[in-house]
Amino acid sequence: MQFSGFLSKVALFSAPQTVAAWAPVPIRLIVGFGFLAHGYAKLSRGPETFGAVLDTLGVPLPQLLAWLTTLVELVGGAAVLAGAFIPLVSVPMAIVLLSALFTVHAQYGFFSVKFTEVTADGIKFGPVGYEIVLLYLGGLATLAIGGPGRLSLDAVLRRQLS
Fold it and tell me: Which among 69, 72, 146 is positioned nearest to 104, based on CA atoms?
């Protein structure tokens, strides 16, 4: 009885359902843009350059995986931005993230921002940990489970098919 009273008071601070339906939009914008930016960076430098990085990490089929990673980031990022087919595109996107986590970021610990030194020339940063990878994975999982929200291609398609 007391717990339900507490919950009703907490609900007063929650967003109304009509507003909450828009909550996925900022997540989609951040995750989608982040993937597009990384994919575009690989494409503009040439996926062969990323393939060389994968080769030094000992990843098998580095050139093929460089192209596939670039495509996953570009297509997946665009789909997330549009709010389309997120449960489908999130699987290869999560594979890319988990691959990056275990091949590069895990050895550097959790934190993404590490001050190595502060000099008169400015701050020097150390290698990036897996914090941001986990945030991207959390964003993808949230969108895949909770849906892309009202302002999405999926919502438009759903309304047209109804």
Answer: 69
pLDDT tens-digit readout, 53-84: 999 999 999 999 999 999 999 999 999 999 99
Measuring CA to CA, how many Å separate 54 from each of 22, 69, 108, 125? 38, 11, 18, 23
Banded pLDDT at 17 (limits 50, 70, 90): confident
CA dihedral of 124, 30, 88, 100, whole degrees rounded to 10? 0
Residue extents of the structural domains in the chain = 23-161
Chain centre distance of CA 38? 11
Q: Give per-residue pLDDT as tens, 110-119.
A: 999 888 898 8
What are the φ and ψ backbone dihedral angles of 65, each rounded to 5 degrees? Answer: -70, -30
Q: How far apart are CA 65 and CA 21, in angstroms?
A: 36
Report strand pairing: 122-125 vs 115-119. antiparallel
Helix (H) or strand (E) holding 49: helix 47-56
pLDDT, average across residues 28-34? 97
Q: What is the pTM of this model?
A: 0.85
Name the E strands within 22-127. 115-119, 122-125
The torsion angles phi and psi of 105, rounded to 5 degrees, stand at -80, -30
